[in-house]
Design goal:
The complex is a heterodimer of chains A (567) and B (314). Chain A has helices spanning 20-24, 53-56, 93-102, 150-162, 164-167, 195-198, 209-216, 268-276, 288-294, 330-339, 342-349, 378-392, 405-419, 432-441, 461-464, 485-496, 500-517; strands spanning 72-77, 107-109, 115-117, 120-125, 131-136, 173-180, 183-188, 230-236, 240-245, 259-264, 282-285, 301-304, 315-320, 396-401, 424-429, 446-451, 520-525, 529-532, 536-537, 564-565. With 567 residues, chain A is an alpha+beta fold. The chains are: A alpha+beta (567), B mainly alpha (314).
């Protein structure tokens, strides 16, 4: 629906908000594993959860009482970003936290999972979903005083398409054309039904013409100028990012804060200590311990992603290279899946939060189905390894991870489980950039990974498609190099069908085929959380321009427009 | 004296030149195509063109070195491929943090170690000496990553006297800056106290057995006067040498403390750059740190000549 309540043809309610986010960015980095707070963000990123159950019921993170104006909120995040320019930077949840201050997206995810207009007023497809017409809201200005109009939107997409980073994710887009001063057409190469969900992600955040021109002029990190609730003030990488209130913000009355500051604190325990000592008002975390540590403490508000069933959560898994021995033999992939003692693993690593999963979608998701994913069966695993060994020798492989204490423990536990079934496992701890490069060119056998959070499963097309598989040594976005025509067919249906039941069946098929092919050994969902002191109010209570509640806490990010400070 | 210093200065220039070559070759030691290795997933046409222009990789090696060192002397160390921030700015931002950490930790270390050593050296093997010696031995076994969380738990979380993390520059707010630096500075102090105390105590005990001290005592000079005017100065050589090495090691060597306290000093910046394969940042910081280390040793050499002019004759 558009904000006037008229029907805006949307395929179905869609949950998440990330598009490029942790995934689709061609050649971008990928968050490498659970608990890894280091750096590069990129391929995967924001977005999966809504506010946790408590927030939804109004007891944490949401306060729609009379807001107080003024004050500064200080947020402790886990890492810094690499820049503010959507065509060339890799935004993870931190990227979206910063972007939600300076910019506004064209579309946003509502609390009910539907996609709602934000900067745009409406978006309507033609009959076969190959042309989408978008009308912009009138009277919106960038911080430099220039107007948000059709031309600047078109120029944003020209820049996004020209970028190697975002261009691949927009392969379905032929071009964006100006219809009139406030209307553009998105002309697609193929039907793309969930397009609005994609515009609620990194490629939906509009920057000013001055930024585009500055970048074209050789300034690869132009000063951010958006339409957002806060104006860029200062950014010192790995120290702080500060933005001040935009007095001319187009959403009347917003924002409430005078200033917002983000402080990257990479060490989890120090981030917690900084919150406890009053150095920050809110922290964001993926460590399950954070949730259990603060739950039940009246002086803190805890919002988490555990109850989120919209779209697809961030997944932690072991990725296997299906084109590299011994992983090119399905028997070994099956043996490894059957060789993991999942209950014991969960007991060790998920702090009792029940993050275990047997597929892409959690129970409660409309895409959830029983996948037939292997369960712990050491006898069967040993038999498979024995058969392989008789034919090809002892299966020997490297299990790589980044230099992270938690992940090191994870790989050590897996090593012991897999050695018990007859495999020889060598552990590798290497730096993140190298590991990302290795996965892109297929120079690995098994690796810890964290990926796939998306507002719509279609956004993960590039990771699972047969069209993005390449031999070892060549760049491939299908990092696992799993080539399954049934998955490809289902993915095409998922993107092009406007029949919700067909789309659900398609992604259930993808999920089932992944449980057969086993390119990914699921370790669990990522447990995003935000913990705040009692001063900061309504951080998970965003209201979208059309009046609907927004998805308040979305895999480690939230809007800053509606936040206010008590006292 | 001047000839001695000139000779040392000449050596400094030679060492600096060698360091610059080694740092320059850092990029060329990478296997395969350096642009591919350096840029990795960020190997876009734009970044590749930028890198080739910055490194001049299509030119002979000596020309590449000349271009690079010319840029260095004009203050252009390139820019980060990740944040596109200039390397000069990263260093200008990070160096003061390292410097402050060093100043705070070393001032505290000297302030504790020197009086303690002066006191215990006069009464070796007495209870106070035994406690101090054992205590400092214990301090040696406490690395910053153990001390820092304890300090944070006590002084930040429980008592709320100091912030748990963060850094404000001195020019922005001097009072907040000093407040921010105390806990991380103290976390770095422990090992220095132990080393300085033990070295100075040992040298003082040795000096106090020299004939000229016996002579001074026979003249009826007070113990305090003897310690401060006769024994202390000749006992500081080991202390100064150790301080020179220690302070040099702390330059960009404070990663753990900077990581824990979320301070974007040189140590933190270079580790992040290594993780991200941001080679121009690594190259720039490595060059500055190496040069600073050499300059520091030159200063220590100079201080030797002040403490004992005989050094220049040797």
């Amino acid at each position: 629906m558009d904000e006037g309540g008229n029907r805006m043809t949307m395929p179905e309610p869609i949950s998440r908000r990330s598009f490029l986010s942790r995934s689709a960015v061609a050649g971008g980095a990928v968050l490498l594993g659970a608990g890894s707070a280091t750096g590069l963000a990129a391929c995967s990123s924001s977005s999966s959860s809504t506010a946790g159950t408590k927030a939804q019921s109004g007891t944490a993170g949401i306060n729609h009482g009379t807001p107080k104006r003024g004050g500064t909120a200080i947020i402790g995040n886990d890492a810094d970003i690499d820049g503010f320019y959507p065509p060339s930077n890799h935004w993870d949840n931190n990227g979206f936290l910063y972007a939600n201050c300076i910019y506004d997206p064209l579309m946003a995810v509502a609390a009910d999972g539907s996609i709602q207009p934000y900067l745009c007023k409406s978006m309507t497809p033609n009959a076969d979903y190959t042309v989408w017409t978008m009308t912009l809201r009138p009277g919106i200005q960038f911080h430099d005083g220039s107007a948000l109009d059709a031309t600047v939107v078109k120029n944003n997409y020209d820049a996004l398409q020209a970028s190697l980073l975002t261009g691949l994710a927009l392969k379905f887009l032929k071009n964006v054309t100006v219809v009139d001063s406030m209307t553009v057409n998105f002309n697609l190469n193929e039907p793309y039904v969930p397009l609005p969900a994609g515009l609620a992600t990194q490629v939906g955040y509009m920057v000013s013409q001055s930024m585009i021109d500055a970048e074209k002029g050789g300034n690869s990190n132009p000063t951010p100028v958006g339409t957002g609730p806060f104006v860029y003030s200062s950014w010192l990488p790995n120290n702080h990012f500060t933005a001040v209130r935009n007095p001319h913000y187009w959403r009347s009355g917003y924002p409430y804060l005078d200033q917002i500051t983000f402080r990257p604190i990479p060490d989890h325990s120090q981030r917690v200590a900084t919150l406890q000592s009053g150095g920050v008002d809110l922290i964001v975390s993926t460590d399950p311990v954070t949730i259990t540590q603060f739950q039940g403490q009246s002086s803190y508000q805890v919002v988490d992603s555990l109850s989120d069933t919209l779209g697809e959560p961030d997944m932690s898994f072991i990725m296997l290279n299906c084109l590299a021995a011994p992983m090119d033999d399905l028997r070994i992939r099956q043996a490894l899946a059957k060789g993991i003692n999942y209950p014991a693993f969960a007991k060790l690593f998920d702090s009792g939060l029940n993050l275990a999963t047997t597929g892409l979608f959690p129970p409660g998701s409309k895409y959830f189905s029983q996948t037939g994913y292997p369960t712990y069966d050491p006898a069967a695993a040993k038999a498979l390894v024995k058969a392989y060994t008789a034919e090809k020798g002892t299966p020997t492989f490297d299990l790589a991870t980044v230099t992270d204490a938690r992940l090191t423990r994870v790989t050590q536990v897996l090593q012991s489980m897999w050695q018990a079934i007859g495999c020889k496992v060598n552990l590798q701890a290497i730096e993140q950039a190298q590991l990302i490069s290795n996965t892109i060119v297929g120079n690995y056998q098994a690796v810890t990974y964290e990926q796939f959070a998306a507002p719509d499963p279609s956004i993960n097309y590039v990771w699972w498609s047969t069209t993005t598989v390449a031999p070892v040594g060549k760049i491939a976005l299908n990092f696992a190099r799993n080539s399954d025509p049934q998955i490809e067919a289902a993915l095409v249906t998922g993107r092009s069908s406007s029949n919700p039941s067909d789309v659900i069946a398609a992604y259930q098929k993808v999920n089932e085929r992944l449980a057969v092919d086993l390119p990914y050994l699921w370790l669990g969902r990522t447990s995003w959380s935000a913990v705040a002191d009692s001063r900061i109010q309504n951080f998970a209570g965003t209201i979208l321009p059309g009046g609907k509640p927004g998805k308040g806490f979305d895999n480690g990010s939230f809007f800053s427009t509606q936040i206010w400070m008590e006292g | 004296m001047l000839a001695y210093l000139a000779k040392r200065l000449g050596q400094l220039v030679v060492v600096g030149f060698i360091i610059s070559i080694l740092v320059f070759l850092l990029v060329h030691l990478l296997p395969g195509d350096p642009t591919v290795v350096i840029l990795g997933p960020n190997d876009t046409a734009h970044n590749r063109a930028l890198l080739l222009a910055q490194l001049g990789l299509n030119k002979p090696l000596y020309q590449q070195y000349w271009i690079w060192i010319s840029h260095v002397f004009s203050g252009n160390l390139g820019e980060s491929y990740v944040t596109h921030e200039s390397v000069g700015h990263i260093i200008a931002t990070g160096f003061p943090i390292d410097l402050e950490l060093i100043i705070v930790s070393q001032v505290v270390a000297f302030a504790v170690a020197i009086p303690l050593a002066l006191f215990t050296a006069r009464r070796p093997n007495r209870p106070v000496d035994n406690v101090a010696t054992t205590g400092t031995f214990g301090l040696l076994a406490l690395p910053p990553f153990v001390i820092a969380p304890v300090f944070v738990a006590v002084f930040a979380v429980a008592l709320k006297w100091f912030p748990a993390t963060g850094y404000t520059s001195f020019t922005t707010d001097p009072a907040t800056n000093i407040h921010d630096m105390i806990l991380p500075g103290l976390a770095l102090t422990a090992a220095s106290i132990a080393v300085y105390y033990r070295l100075l105590r040992s040298d003082l005990i040795s000096t106090l057995q020299e004939d000229f001290i016996t002579m001074a005592r026979s003249k009826g000079l007070s113990n305090r006067y003897i310690m401060m005017r006769h024994a202390f100065r000749p006992s500081t050589f080991s202390l100064m040498a150790a301080a020179g090495v220690n302070i040099g090691a702390l330059l960009a060597g404070t990663f753990i403390v900077e990581y824990l306290f979320a301070m974007n000093g040189l140590g933190y910046s270079i580790v992040v750059a290594v993780q991200q394969r941001d080679y121009l940042v690594i190259q720039g910081i490595a060059l500055v740190v190496a040069i600073a280390y050499v300059v520091l040793q030159f200063i220590v050499d100079f201080l030797f000549t002040v403490v004992d002019p005989r050094v220049t004759r040797e």
